[in-house]
Write a structure and sequence with these properties.
Helix 5 links the parallel strand 4 and strand 5. This protein has 305 residues and is an alpha/beta fold. The protein has two domains: 3-159 and 204-228, NAD(P)-binding Rossmann-like Domain (Rossmann fold), CATH 3.40.50.720; 165-202 and 232-267 and 284-304, UDP-galactose 4-epimerase, domain 1 (Alpha-Beta Complex). It has helices at residues 12-23, 41-44, 66-69, 71-92, 128-148, 174-188, 207-220, 236-247, 272-277, 286-299, and strands at 3-7, 27-30, 53-56, 97-101, 151-157, 159-161, 193-195, 201-202, 204-206, 224-228, 234-235, 255-257. The strands form four sheets. It has a six-stranded parallel β-sheet, with helices on both faces. Helix 1 (12-23) packs across helix 7 and helix 8 crosses helix 10 (286-299). The protein is built from ten helices and twelve strands. The longest helix is centred in the first third of the chain and has 22 residues, at 71-92.
């Protein structure tokens, strides 16, 4: 039986991944900011048990314009977190495999978004600091592998969605923000205003699909980096229209505020490398995935939070 330790275990991905691993009779140690503040290096050293896998999901960030508001804090805090994990891995857990998340915002706007371009070019300006902390994490893992032979895997996700998103007051990723605003437009007659002109494009992967793919990569691929995406993107208008159709709200009532922050205009990860190693690569239908997510919003009254 394998031992896993997961940082960021209370996040959207962390909580679902932990439950999935437990179903397969794996021993899980869940860490979060309350039981192990990773900004203090001494905290992680309290965990003396030897682990087979370190799954590092913790990061100090939020959706929306958070990266624009706190670039300095993001640099210092994320560098502290990542450096402390890397040091602990090297000194206390050299036989463990470090699995960590990259970010699609690392890629240059002129990039083909293939893994060999992860460290090339300039990241999107508005997300620059956060992107560079992720590049530093990747380089740190590569350096420790080169010098000490430590084993790692870097997964670069597109935007994840599905039931069970966090409800603790943090800013919502775009698809959850769209669902919440449109539901409130229907239920409470509120004005629905979306950021940008609606033509910016995004890519979604259902959370359970991502976890299945990640689980395969964790146990079959070493010292490598993989994009995990849908290979297809749609405009914000398209997503909004699908949500409107599902809850029976007139799309024509939606307004777009072009003065607001929108981030990258397009962001669709190349999945060529991933497709080559998977026998099947089937993702949940977008309509069905949105339906399940919207049902979760209603069942848990998330739109009231």
């Amino acid at each position: 039986m394998k031992n896993y330790i997961i940082t960021g275990s209370t996040g959207f991905l962390g909580s679902r991944l932990s439950k999935s691993l437990e179903k397969n009779d794996r021993i899980i140690r869940n860490l979060n900011s309350k039981n192990c503040d990773l900004r203090n290096k001494d905290n992680i050293y309290k965990f003396k048990e030897k682990y087979d896998y370190i799954i590092h999901l913790a990061a100090w960030t939020q959706a929306g314009d958070f990266c624009l508001k706190y670039p300095g804090d993001q640099w210092i805090i994320n560098q502290e977190i990542n450096t402390n994990i890397l040091r602990w891995w090297k000194e206390e857990q050299p036989n463990a495999k470090l699995v960590f998340m990259g970010t699609s915002c690392v890629y240059s706007e002129n990039s083909s978004l293939t893994e060999d371009e992860y460290m090339k070019g300039e990241p999107t300006e508005s997300l620059y600091t956060y992107a560079m902390t992720k590049r530093m994490l990747y380089q740190g893992a590569k350096a420790l592998n080169q010098q000490y032979g430590l084993n790692y895997l870097c997964a670069v996700p597109s935007t994840l969605y599905g039931p069970g998103y966090h409800t603790d007051g943090r800013q919502l990723h775009f698809i959850f923000d769209l669902i919440r605003k449109i539901i409130r437009g229907k239920e409470y007659g509120e004005e629905v205003v979306l950021w940008g002109d609606g033509n910016q494009k995004r890519e979604l992967v259902f959370i359970d699909d991502f976890i299945k793919i990640l689980d395969f990569l964790i146990h079959n691929c070493n010292n490598d980096i993989f994009n995990i995406g849908a290979g297809q993107e749609f405009s914000i208008k398209h997503f909004a229209n699908l949500i409107c159709e599902e809850i029976n709200f007139p799309f024509e009532k939606i307004k777009f505020d072009t003065s607001k922050y929108v981030g990258a205009k397009s962001k669709c990860l190349s999945t060529t490398k991933l497709s080559k190693i998977l026998n099947t690569y089937n993702l949940k239908n977008l309509d069905q995935g949105l339906k399940e997510t919207i049902n979760w919003f209603y069942q848990n009254k998330v739109f009231d939070l």
